[in-house]
């Protein structure tokens, strides 16, 4: 625990910065780092809470003040505080980054009471795909997108810039993939039921059965654990998950970026798995296939050689279209193959293989859009935030 002298020293350092300003004002380097490392802490709390939350809901009846909700709320409180600091002082963000952060925080805060009302009206509503839950993901999406832009625009070149940018993209991937955890926990919970080793408490099963107006049987368990069509999991994982990896590779600009972002997220899920199961909570299928997908994205960028790009350009085909064609033809098969292999070896939600066509078309469109947007929006070095200046003198 920090001593009163430490708090006093921190206050003396921070108070001179608490002045009204417009977004894009000159930001001292030490303040810039404090703000964005604060965002790393906020997102870490939110990830820890959300990772525990899904497992909790497959074991216990919902509770507004459940420990996972409180842990997530701690991250939300810090995120709100940082949003207020950015908005009032204008430090650490340009106008676009600030608007994304503010809109994301606003949507999230509106979604929280709507989600509480939804649970009061509709009962259990365990599915991650409900409208109020989707609003939470959308709010977090805008929030992290604004933080990524703010860091990308203002952080000085160097290893720290790339590592922290990769960490923010890992948080972005976690938010995008989060609703898929319903199926990842659900498939193992259904398997436990089939093996007569049910994870959920009897009170939760009875509540779900009463809500479905069914006895506690396998049909009820299927509706409880896997309430969405089988094609949703692979299509969403490919289109949404790989789109994040594509943008990460484009902005980080290094081979291995997509693999490391995916690997970082999967590593967190891998560590959480034994921690949760050791304490008696249900396990989940871990999306190891995302690491293979990240590697394929990196390879797709690697093979886009200048000579090939020039040849395609002469034929009237853009580099972006070439990248999209690579994904459709070379990535879709291995990703679905990795999913199928994981389904047989380690466990994964049911895979509707025919959905590969729609996943491929969706990813091709998303890849093209990402290349187009980044080529148009990627800031020129002269558009970055002004060079950090010395800290203001204290009085």
List keywords for this structure.
mainly alpha, 395 residues, 71% helix, 2 domains, 15 helices
Quick structural summary:
This protein is mainly alpha-helical.
Note down, in words, how this protein is organized.
By secondary structure, this protein is an all-alpha fold. The protein has two domains: 20-228, no CATH class; 229-382, no CATH class. It is 71% helix and 0% strand. It has helices spanning 4-14, 29-57, 67-89, 95-122, 131-154, 159-177, 181-194, 202-212, 218-225, 232-252, 257-278, 289-302, 306-314, 319-345, 356-377. The chain is globular and about 65 Å long.
How are the SSEs placed, and which strands pair?
Layout: H1 4-14, H2 29-57, H3 67-89, H4 95-122, H5 131-154, H6 159-177, H7 181-194, H8 202-212, H9 218-225, H10 232-252, H11 257-278, H12 289-302, H13 306-314, H14 319-345, H15 356-377
